[in-house]
Specification:
By secondary structure, the protein is mainly alpha-helical. The protein contains 11 helices and no strands.
Length: 229
């Protein structure tokens, strides 16, 4: 199944072996670390299983970057889902549902992932009645999750160190070179590294597009974007 590019298998220092929230509690030495605080807040969102999210992404830094990418794509994704639903374009609706099934599972939103799987299956069959039964409640749950994630994502962004525009540009140039050489592992590492910083406002739009193209493994558009920046 397709998964976020960020969650390709990698070794990340310290947190790379963390498999559940209990281990983060131990590593935090009393719960004072930002990592523990982040996971504690995430555990309060009933739609998400933090342990499943950690297991699926492999480590905490990649879980954070995946959550950020997932959250930032909700507005566009729900619009596309609604448009394909209204147009009864079940082929593209199926593609969107498949993507949300996979990405929702990655962040531990298991119930939402199961609903998306049901929509994907119905769209594959062209079962309009079954889609109509599930679509509205799925969209409601999806947007509800966006509101709950917004509190975590905004606070997490505020606590990140700021990267300078010049340093961001260096990383962007590296991403372009990696895309040209199709070095997937290092490309994911660089995007994950950038996700650990607060991106300057002047570069935030560019970074969101970079994340989107990496997520969709759309290297032609990624290279075009970075070459023309």
């Amino acid at each position: 199944e397709f998964e976020f590019g960020f969650c390709l298998e990698q070794d990340v220092a310290d947190w790379g072996t963390v498999k559940n929230v209990a281990e983060i509690t131990d590593k935090s030495q009393g719960g004072g670390s930002s990592d523990f605080d982040f996971m504690e807040k995430l555990s309060l969102i009933e739609e998400i299983s933090p342990d499943a999210a950690l297991k699926n992404c492999g480590n905490l830094p990649l879980l954070k970057s995946t959550l950020k990418s997932y959250y930032s794509s909700i507005s566009k994704s729900q619009q596309e889902m609604q448009e394909t639903f209204a147009a009864k374009d079940w082929k593209n609706y199926c593609i969107k549902a498949h993507s949300l099934k996979s990405t929702s599972r990655l962040i531990g939103a298991l119930s939402l992932s199961q609903k998306a799987a049901g929509l994907e299956s119905a769209a594959e069959r062209g079962d309009e009645k079954e889609i109509a039964k599930i679509h509205a409640s799925f969209m409601e749950d999806y947007l509800s999750l966006e509101k709950k994630l917004s509190i975590i994502m905004v606070k997490n962004e505020e606590s990140k160190p700021v990267i300078s525009e010049s340093d961001f540009e260096k990383k962007a140039s590296e991403i372009l070179a990696l895309a040209e050489s199709f070095n997937l592992n290092r490309l994911d590492e660089v995007v994950a590294e950038l996700s650990g910083f607060s991106i300057p406002e002047s570069k935030s739009g560019l970074f969101e597009k970079i994340c989107g193209y990496v997520e969709n493994v759309d290297f032609p558009e990624l290279k075009k974007l970075l070459a023309e920046r």
